[in-house]
Amino acid sequence: MEMHQLRYFVAVAEERNFTRAAETCSVAQPSLSQQIIKLEKELGHKLFDRLGRQVRLTDAGRLLYGRATSVLEGLESTREELAELAGAGRGRVSVGAMLTAAPYLLPPVLKAFGRSHPEAEVIVHEGMTDRVLEECKSGALDLALLAMPVDDDQLHVEPLFEDELLLAVHPKHRLATKKRVTLEDVMAEPFILLDPIHCLGKQVLSYCLGKECKPRVACRSSQILTVQELVALDYGVSLLPASAAAADKSKSRCYVSLCGASPSRSIALVWRRNRVQSGVVKAFADEIRRRWTS
């Protein structure tokens, strides 16, 4: 049994006519008919009932039709995947991330990915969590980096790592020399709070209140960079993610862990469920996993 025989057979079954099937397959009708006869002899079953110019499948033909279409579809899918694999170094990736994560999580991934896929184009969308979620669901984004929980049946959520929250203080602050500090120590200080319009701001405030500690808020800001600069001026202290601390090259700030079970945010890789990913998107997702999976 040859693949071209299966293609001819499927064409006849769908066209219900040998002449039209031959035209569809771009082959002479006598040649197509000979191949169908050869296939019938090989299988030991009559596949078509001839009714004048029309044909219809026999029971054996209906069985073969179901199997043949699956085989041909699988073959075509495999060819597409192999072609995609060959072109995995080219193409475009649209990746989204929340504002409090993008500057810290994406640059090292982009640098490594750029070295391995120099012909690929990456488009970065930074925004509030709700907006990134909507763009992910609409298909505007291939991938997104977000903080959990992400509760949406339309999205696939793959946890990556825990981003610990650290106390950011001025190097000469009384808490700067401690290996760990208590939340009570923190609450005694003027606190710079990331605005609760960000899920990180909400999380910090919820954590403090959950420990029955109310921060003495001296200032609210919508940008982590502004919070860091205020800490550098010794205006107050704040809780910021370890990813932001790792990217902070300033000598005007230092970071200290909290005692006990440190608070953290769970970072996840998110994409629309059942979305077919191109080779270059899969490669970018793998780079994220290599860099950020715990």
Q: Helical element count?
A: 11
Residues in helix, %: 40-55%
Q: Return residue spans where pLDDT drops below 50 for at least 5 consecutive residues.
A: none
Average pLDDT number: 91
Order of helices and strands: HHHEEHEHEHEEEHEHEHEHEEH
Keywords: DNA-binding, Transcription, Transcription regulation
Protein name: Hydrogen peroxide-inducible activator
GO molecular function: DNA binding; DNA-binding transcription factor activity
Organism: Pseudobythopirellula maris
Description:
The chain is α/β, with parallel strands linked by helices. The chain folds into three domains: 3-86, Arc Repressor Mutant, subunit A; 91-161 and 266-292, D-Maltodextrin-Binding Protein, domain 2 (3-Layer(aba) Sandwich); 163-265, D-Maltodextrin-Binding Protein, domain 2 (3-Layer(aba) Sandwich), CATH 3.40.190.290. It is built from eleven helices and twelve strands. The protein has helices at residues 3-15, 18-25, 29-43, 59-86, 102-116, 129-138, 183-187, 199-210, 224-232, 242-247, 279-292; strands at residues 48-51, 54-57, 91-98, 120-127, 143-147, 155-169, 180-181, 190-194, 216-221, 238-241, 254-258, 264-272. β8, α8 and β9 form a beta-alpha-beta unit. α1 (3-15) packs across α2, α1 crosses α4 and α5 packs across α11 (279-292). The longest helix has 28 residues, at 59-86. The mean pLDDT is 91.
